[in-house]
Design goal:
Number of helices: 4
Structural class: mainly alpha
Distance between the termini: 70 Å
């Protein structure tokens, strides 16, 4: 496949994605839409993703840092023996720790956000049900 063919294919794929995105934005902005543009996510879906994030958090929290003390000891021993790999080992451990903490933070954020989304959505549904039922009753008394 030539560069021009690949470039044309990439452009058409990007255009299709942009069109899809615009359609989704239009549906959201209008509060409805035509045809089969009704996207839904169920509470069990949200809870499942949130629970997976929480499970990953707990497993990774234990497994990610168990080598820290040994790494520190090894790095110090290498430094005492004038090996430059001691500092490199410490840098690698520090980078790993930082990235592991970022992953743990992301997992906690995902879990908490999805849990809050489920609760908030339930409350909104209850308010809508009450408002609609009161609105329907008021119609009959006008």
């Amino acid at each position: 496949m030539s560069f021009d063919e690949m470039w044309g294919q990439a452009r058409s794929t990007a255009a299709a994605r942009q069109e899809s995105s615009m359609r989704l934005n239009q549906v959201s902005a209008e509060g409805g839409g035509e045809g089969g543009y009704n996207y839904t996510v169920t509470k069990p879906d949200l809870k499942a993703v949130g629970n997976d994030a929480q499970e990953l958090f707990h497993v990774f929290e234990v497994d990610a840092f168990h080598a820290g003390a040994q790494t520190n000891t090894a790095a110090n021993d290498l430094n005492k023996q004038k090996f430059k790999t001691g500092a490199a080992l410490w840098t690698a451990w520090d980078t790993w720790r930082s990235q592991a903490e970022a992953l743990l933070s992301a997992c906690a954020h995902i879990h908490n956000h999805l849990e809050d989304t489920v609760v908030t959505h339930t409350k909104h549904e209850e308010v809508l049900a009450v408002n609609l039922s009161v609105e329907q009753i008021n119609k009959h008394f006008k």
